[in-house]
Design goal:
It is built from ten helices and 14 strands. By secondary structure, the chain is an alpha/beta fold. Bound molecules: uridine-5'-diphosphate-4-deoxy-4-fluoro-alpha-D-galactose.
């Protein structure tokens, strides 16, 4: 039985959908603070909080857990700057509670959601896994501290953990039954599409004077279903006795904010006329992944790498009249 923490969230709900499609037995642990129970589909939920050592441990007493995929965490860089303690508590102490519960119940397979944010301002792009970890926000720090705890637990207790450092998760399941629904929404693609759907006011471009060809920030967008595939491969690796490892997960191709806006205009047929605004503090100019390691180790290859495909999939979901927290 696989434990999926944060299974009601954006990436977690897509993971659960895939596990259901493949008939893989799993259970979700989620406090539903940021996730939506409507996204759980037929996956079974144990409602609980990563910050409670007792609630986390109780899952391992109730269920025959063999491996854990840990998504549950706060994810907004900007929010982390304003409320760092919440990130340390939920993200970092949450991981410690999980590691302790796994250790005492002798569960030693973990797939961990890490992030490009652990690298901070890149010294080179595309970023390889051996790039120094110089995170520049409490969010990045909370994930970096989690990575260090996982490394220590691997060395001391024989935990086998695969850390996946995601770049910018995007898109939604092609059948549009689940997708990205943060509240409040801060991510570029859903903001652009919600503006196109008339569900948000005019969008802003944060910064037009970056050292990039069109002056706007460049990101490596990766389809959520391609991220899920990386987790499936990580689970197989661990099931087959594979050891701890870590991988970047991105397409390696960057798109600027202006390119994303143009693609969103093309897909939706609407003009967005974005307001050109000041930089958002803490945004690096360019973040792209060197994902050659996961490609050569496991043959992982993104199946939906085109920006337009990601935006089309997200649009099918976000333009649905029933989209959102009240769906
Ligand atoms: N942006 C805008 N206008 C908006 C929203 C975003 O111009 O309304 C810009 C941002 O300034 C940035 C780019 O679009 O340059 C992408 O921003 P997102 O907020 O969509 O994503 P981030 O790159 O800031 O962060 C995301 C996740 C993090 C993760 C990181 C890894 O939110 O959890 O990717 O690269 F760590």
């Amino acid at each position: 039985m696989i434990l999926v923490t944060g299974g009601a969230g954006f990436i977690g709900s897509h993971m659960c959908r895939r596990l259901r499609d493949e008939g893989i037995d799993h259970v979700v642990f989620d406090n539903l603070e940021r996730g939506w129970k409507e996204s759980l589909g037929g996956s079974r939920l144990i409602q609980g909080d990563m910050r409670s050592r007792e609630e986390v441990a109780a899952v391992f007493d109730r269920e025959e857990i063999t491996a854990v995929i840990h998504f549950a965490a706060y994810i907004e860089v900007g929010e982390s700057v304003k409320a760092p303690a919440a990130f340390w508590e939920n993200n970092t102490i949450g991981v410690w509670n999980l590691i302790e519960a796994m250790r005492s119940r002798e569960v030693n397979q973990l797939v961990f959601s890490s992030t490009a944010a652990v690298y901070g301002e890149p010294q080179q792009v595309p970023i390889p896994e051996h790039h120094p970890r110089n995170s520049t926000s409490p969010y990045g720090d909370s994930k970096l501290a989690s990575e260090r705890m996982i490394e220590a637990a691997s060395a001391a207790y024989g935990l086998n953990a695969v850390r996946l450092r995601y770049f910018n998760a995007a898109g939604s399941h092609p059948d549009a039954t689940i997708g990205e629904a943060h509240d409040p929404e801060t991510h570029l693609i859903p903001i652009a599409l919600l503006a196109a759907a008339g569900k948000r006011p005019r969008m802003k471009i944060f910064g037009t004077d970056y050292d990039t060809p069109d002056g706007t920030c460049i990101r490596d967008y990766i389809h959520v279903c391609d991220l899920v595939e990386a987790h499936i491969l990580a689970l197989k690796h661990l099931e087959n006795g594979g050891k701890s490892d870590l991988f970047n997960v991105g397409t390696g191709k960057g798109f600027s904010v202006k390119e994303v806006v143009s693609a969103a205009e093309m897909v939706t047929g609407k003009s967005l006329d974005p307001e050109l605004a000041d930089r958002r503090p803490g945004d690096p100019a360019v973040l792209t992944a060197d994902s050659s390691k996961i490609q050569s180790a496991w043959g992982w290859k993104p199946q939906r790498p085109d920006l337009e495909t990601m935006i089309e999939d997200a649009w099918r979901w976000l333009s649905d009249p029933a989209y959102g927290p009240n769906r």
